[in-house]
Amino acid sequence: MFRWLAGRGASRRRVAQELSLISPQAWRHAMAGLPFLAGLSRQEQEALRDRVAWLLASKVFNGARGLEVTDDIKMAIAIQAALPIMQLDPALYEGWIEIIVYPGGFLIPRSEVHEDGVVAEYMLEASGEAWDGGPVILSWEDSQPGNPQTVNVVIHEFAHKLDLYGGIADGMPSLHAHSDIRPSVWMRVLDATFDSFGDALDAIEREIPRHIDPESEAAAPWYDRLPLDPYAATDPAEFFAVSTEGFFVNPLPLAQALPEWYGLLAQYYRQDPLRRLGFAPHGMR
User: Fold this and answer.
1) Side by side, which strands form the sheet with 60-63?
2) Which of 21, 45, 183, 221 fits a 20 to 30 Å CA distance from 70?
3) CA-CA distance, 239 to 193, in Å (whole number)?
4) Alpha-carbon distances, residue 221 vs 17, 88, 205, 268 (angstroms)
5) Which GO terms describe its cellular component (predicted)?
6) CATH of the domain at 262
């Protein structure tokens, strides 16, 4: 009980109990709805199941707005959340205890300080949010299997948790277990790649005809040429989270456009989704 209250991971015995409750049928059903996991080897699937059991044993799931969080919902979310730490220490997800699931999008309060010093407060509709030291909040509509395989709100928000575990949300997760990655190298590649992506976004936006609203669906053909969602240009923390989405669910555009960044992510996560999903090495060139 005290481990749970402190946001620490469950005991090995509790994790083993949870692992024994994952039936082969439930596992196959959940995996089938997530095509980007199709290339996992048997060993990787076993590692992923272990991390899923750890999550189910260590976190409490609560529904909002009357949503009943079923075992199927828990399993689908836990599999996606566990993928980034499949080869990492699950302690990276410690320090908090709750996953809140809404039926759909939800509103979060935001404030913005204008140049004249006036503070504007407003409500922003979101599909996910990760609080520093607090819960991960998800929209089930946007998290459930069957959504477009170019984005993944669960992976995005849990990437923020990895970032926050390393300190402030700045795009650099904890590297204490990665003696092969120097923090200075991470920041150099992150800064250079973030700037490069921002330049590419600026170039795309200059190409959009003036009669087309850049915030509308009509602008999608231009933005679709980018390797990541434009939201990645918000700041380095969002760049890391959006990049992590792309790395796991749609790695080819990222690897082709930003190969050094892709390679660093592969080194950090100790995974190579590009090869796992059957892309030949030359696909990165």
Assistant:
1) 60-63, 98-102, 136-139, 128-130
2) 45
3) 9
4) 49, 37, 11, 32
5) cytosol
6) 3.40.390.10
Tens of pLDDT, residue by residue over 2-46, are: 455 557 788 999 999 999 999 999 999 999 999 999 899 999 999
In the block, residue with structure tokens 């200059």 = 206
167-to-33, 155, 162 alpha-carbon distances in Å: 34, 19, 9
Of 7, 181, 180, the closest CA to residue 172 belongs to 181
Cα gap 32→82, rounded to integer Å: 16
Give the SS3 label for residue 121: strand
CA 165 distance to own-chain centroid: 14
8 and 126 inside one domain? yes
* pLDDT tens per residue across span 97-128: 999 999 998 777 766 766 776 766 766 778 89
- From first CA to last CA, the distance across the chain in angstroms is 51
Distances (CA, A) of 97 to 94, 206, 260: 8, 44, 34
Reading phi first (left if > 0) and then psi (alpha if -120 to 50, else beta), residue 69 is in beta
Q: How far is CA 70 from the centre of its chain?
A: 22
Question: Which residues, in sequence order, are bridge partners of residue 130?
Answer: 136
CB under 8 Å to 52, separation ≥6 — which residues?
A: 22, 75, 78, 79, 82
What are residue 111's DSSP bridge partners?
121
Q: Which domain holds residue 268?
A: 183-284
Nearest to 130 by CA among 50, 240, 9: 240
Cα 54–chain centre separation: 18
Ranges of the chain with pLDDT below 70:
1-6, 110-111, 113-114, 117, 119-120, 122-123, 280-285
